[in-house]
Write a structure and sequence with these properties.
It is built from eight helices and two strands; from the N terminus they run ααααββαααα. With about 250 residues, it is mainly α.
Length: about 250
């Protein structure tokens, strides 16, 4: 029994040592993403804000509010008009006939121009102008506050999704290390069974542990891949390219 325990510990130590020696260096984008959240999170958040269709719709609503405010301010000009008139003929017939008047010439046809400005404003329009302007200004402020609130919610969502990816990566790493250990133990148990040092029930137990460890590893891998893809969907681009941005 001591020999078996010593063999298992030696195999475990050798496997871990070889695993550490053969570990490939992390890529630059992975180093930024997993080890530098102060760099990764602002990039992820900026990309998510730019990609968000809801925030883009709110920007359009804010632009519409700006135009409505301009229309209300100019609405009072709708009651102001410029009029012009031109008549041609014997203008003398328009006044009282006076032959003794200097410059009067009966039957002379001339042209007459007339121009002016007319103002016709409903009293309710004049009195409510400031109120309508204030209303549109409040609508604009409300749209801006709604947009900021949505942007804050998106920031919180990105933070949560980022933490999910980091946690899933750590769980996957632990499950991978555990699987290597269980797999090594199973190989030793299988060898000892062939040599008659292990019973069939003990070999079956080692097999069950190997299967459970393999299933746990695949589950952790699926959770990591899913959380990673969800984050990429929110930011609208691949994380690897986003982390390589200078």
């Amino acid at each position: 029994m001591r020999k078996l325990l010593g063999s298992l510990l030696l195999a475990l130590y050798t496997t871990v040592a070889l695993g550490q020696a053969n570990t490939a260096p992390a890529k630059s984008w992975q180093t930024v993403f997993f080890d530098s959240p102060t760099v990764a999170l602002p990039r992820l958040t900026a990309a998510a804000i730019q990609h968000s269709a809801q925030l883009q719709s709110m920007e359009v609503g804010k632009a519409i509010s700006e135009q409505d405010l301009k229309i209300v301010k100019r609405q009072i000009l709708g009651g102001v008009g410029v009029v012009g008139n031109y008549t041609y003929g014997n203008q003398g017939t328009i006044g009282v006939y006076n032959p003794t008047s200097p410059g009067f010439e009966r039957g002379r046809n001339t042209g007459l121009y007339a121009a002016g400005v007319s103002v016709a404003l409903p009293l309710i329009q004049v009195l409510s102008r400031n109120t309508l302007i204030k209303k549109e200004q409040l609508n604009y402020q409300r749209n801006e506050l709604t947009r900021k609130e949505q942007e804050n919610q998106l920031r919180q969502q990105v933070i949560q999704l980022y933490q999910n990816v980091v946690l899933a990566k750590k769980l996957l790493t632990l499950q991978q290390e555990s699987y290597v250990t269980v797999q090594t133990n199973y190989k030793l148990a299988e060898k000892q069974f062939r040599q008659g040092q292990l019973t069939l029930p003990e070999l079956s137990e080692a097999t069950n542990q190997l299967n459970q460890s393999a299933m746990s590893q695949e589950t952790a891998r699926n959770q990591y891949d899913t959380s990673f893809m969800i984050l990429e969907e929110v930011v609208g681009t691949t994380i690897s390219s986003l982390m390589q941005t200078p």
